[in-house]
Amino acid sequence: MMSFRLNKLIFIAGLLALGACGEADAPLEERLRPVRYITVSDDSVFRDRSFSGTSKSSRESRLSFKVSGTITQLPVQIGQRLNAGDLIAEIDSASYVLQVQQAQASLVEAQANDRKATADYERTKGLYANDNASLNDLDAARAQAESSGAMVASAGKALEIARLNLSYTKLTADTECSIASLDVEVNENVSSGQQVAAVSCGDKFEVTMNLPESLIGLVDEITPVTIRFSSIPDRQFNGVIAEISVASVSGSAGFPVVIRIDESDPALRSGLAADVTFQFDSAAASGTGVVIPVTAVINDPDGTYVFLAVPSESEGEAIVTRRPVAVGELSQFGIEISDGLTPGDFVITAGISVIREGQRVLVLANGP
């Protein structure tokens, strides 16, 4: 009886073992990992680029005296509006007045000597004609007359210079302008060429900024530009590219660009922080690349690349492939891909940490 039960248990165990083996040998259904992607399209092209700049008057001047001296008058204040001819600063003119008087006296003396030398020459010519003077006497009289005439001319120029120096003791506005800065005080001794004040003239303004080398070749005088100022939040200004540098700023890769503001506004002034936006046309923009989420870009010792989802024959499935790319600049919209992607590519943006090249994946709805 015991032997029968034992054999029965062995038989049941054998059946269970065979069942287990059958289950192990049955092929398991492959589980596809889900990924998300974005489609590279023409709308992904990086058309608009914004950069920081600083406003300034279209005509800014740093004023200085052409002569040295001590400041005696400084009747202006920062921000003051001036008309043409208004006095900005004056230096002590006493020594320059004396120089003018000295030059005048020298001129009078030279003129007297010239009259005497001219008269002597005319008299000597008459004596020579009557054989009462030698040729040497005539030549000497002529030379003295010519020399005295040159002395008169020299004294006259010296007087002009002295009068100019006297006029340089007053610094005036040559047109309507505003005082942007004052760099001296009354009773301060200044040298010629030392900055005394800076003025902003006219009501036209421009913005200066540096453009990176990757974009400097894409802008010209007809590139659309818009400008915004944080201090004028409700206003957008149109700009025109007025100047494009052919050399980068020393120590950087930026190229100076000057944008002229077409419109005027009482709130505009020099030194305002500006946000300058360039709008590239389609042809130019296609050369700047596309923008994708930063998380979609992988950088490892093998290089920089992205994963693309290549649709397979089964609906909703794709094959992962790796595509090397060249990256550009980082912006608030993502990272620029300057080379490696074309419109129509499906760039995987989520799930890239658990996929590999050649893997079959399940693609979900587009999204970051």
Write a structural description:
With 368 residues, this protein is α+β, with helices and mostly antiparallel strands. It folds into three domains: 33-45 and 287-363, Beta Barrel (conserved putative lor/sdh protein from methanococcus maripaludis s2 fold); 50-58 and 203-285, Efflux pump adaptor protein, beta barrel domain (Elongation Factor Tu (Ef-tu), domain 3), CATH 2.40.30.170; 93-168, Helix Hairpins (Orthogonal Bundle), CATH 1.10.287. 27% of the residues lie in helices and 39% in strands. It is built from five helices and 21 strands. It has helices spanning 2-25, 94-129, 135-167, 213-216, 282-285, and strands at residues 33-39, 48-64, 69-73, 81-82, 87-91, 170-172, 177-182, 189-190, 195-212, 225-229, 232-244, 254-261, 273-279, 290-292, 298-300, 303-311, 317-324, 326-331, 334-339, 346-350, 360-363. It has a six-stranded mixed sheet with strand order 15-16-17-21-1-20, with no helix packed on it. Strands 2-9-12-11-10-13 form a six-stranded antiparallel beta barrel. The protein has a four-stranded antiparallel sheet with strand order 6-5-3-8, with no helix packed on it. Strand 18 (326-331) and strand 19 (334-339) form a beta hairpin. The longest helix has 36 residues, at 94-129. The chain starts with a helix and ends in a 5-residue tail after the last strand. Mean pLDDT is 82; it is low at 20-29 and 282-287.
